[in-house]
Specification:
Blueprint: E1 3-7, H1 18-27, E2 32-35, H2 44-50, E3 56-67, E4 70-77, H3 84-95, H4 97-110, H5 117-124, H6 131-140, H7 171-180, E5 184-187, H8 201-209, E6 214-218, H9 224-237, E7 240-243, H10 263-272, E8 279-280
Parallel strand pairs: 1-2, 2-3, 5-6, 6-7
Antiparallel strand pairs: 3-4, 3-8, 4-5
Helix pairs in contact: 1-2, 5-6
């Protein structure tokens, strides 16, 4: 089985619609794909309806968190999307995205970049606006060559010249909320140092003690030594090691299935989940 547990659609900052994403996942030879848009479940219904036969969809979200001044992302899988407390927190994060993005556009303008809010809003479309949309605007303007090059201290990285904070969950609270909604939590790209400051291993250990289920080990932003260290850390802390592409369509260079999760780990994730269940594809036919 080929299992990719971290992808994004136009419901947040990817370039594939949810329907396109699941079709592309099947075409890429995946057996299982998770849709984990930032702080939203808005793409789930479309993805479920379009999932082809032979592909299984895992519903989820990537939650924006912060601890001790350091931002981090928490992948949440197979939770009940209607659970009110978690839904309310996702809404608070989404509501803060527009004023935050406007602030970053203003900072870029002060730095002499001729970016406009209309340009960023047009790129975001109906998606949950975020830094990748602003980064795409910088690419379009010729300020940086790629989206990844915008995530530096010079521009949009955590603490960068044009960075602005937003409402974010405490990760310990995120774990509690996701578990209360029947879901499973995995710390996304914990050693992605090129994105900015990362939390120390002591915090990962505390998160594990608080109920964190896993850590994303195999990821494009982890070099070989980082992946090796995280694999050891997962074993030491009893965490599930996962792998995934963090696919964003054409917005990033990663490919669907570039990194994958071991089937036994996937099986344990689904065993622990009680809020929702993986959805086998029907090829667009109505479900019984």
């Amino acid at each position: 089985m080929r299992i990719d547990l971290h992808t994004h659609s136009t419901a947040s900052d990817g370039t594939d619609t949810p329907a396109e994403l699941v079709r592309h996942a099947a075409a890429a030879g995946l057996d299982v794909v998770a849709l984990t848009d930032h702080d939203t479940v808005g793409g789930h219904a479309e993805a479920i309806a379009a999932t082809p036969e032979g592909l299984t969809l895992v519903t989820g979200a990537e939650l924006s968190c912060r601890v001790d001044g350091v931002g981090l992302h928490m992948l949440a899988y197979l939770f009940d999307p209607a659970e009110p407390e978690l839904a309310r927190e996702r809404e608070l994060v989404r509501d803060d995205r527009v004023p935050r993005a406007r602030t970053m556009v203003g900072k870029l303008q002060e730095l002499g970049v001729p970016v406009t809010w209309d340009q960023v809003a047009r790129i975001a479309g109906d998606g949950s606006v975020g830094r990748p949309h602003i980064a795409t605007a910088l690419v379009d303007l010729g300020v940086v060559p790629t989206v990844s090059d915008a995530f530096t201290p010079q521009w949009l990285a955590n603490g960068g010249r044009a960075y602005a904070e937003k409402h974010e969950l405490d990760p310990f609270e995120a774990i509690r909320l996701v578990k209360a909604a029947g879901g499973v939590t995995v710390f996304a790209h914990p050693l992605a140092v090129k994105r900015g400051q990362v939390v120390p291993e002591s915090v990962i250990a505390e998160l594990a003690s608080a109920g964190l289920d896993g850590i994303e080990v195999d990821h494009m932003d982890h070099d070989a030594p980082s992946r090796a260290r995280l694999r050891v850390l997962a074993a030491e802390l009893g965490l599930l090691p996962t792998g995934s592409s963090d696919y964003h369509g054409t917005r990033k260079t990663c490919r669907l299935g570039e990194y994958t999760t071991d089937p036994e780990i996937y099986g344990e994730i689904t065993r622990r989940a009680t809020g929702a269940f993986p959805v086998p594809g029907t090829g667009g036919r109505p479900r019984a």
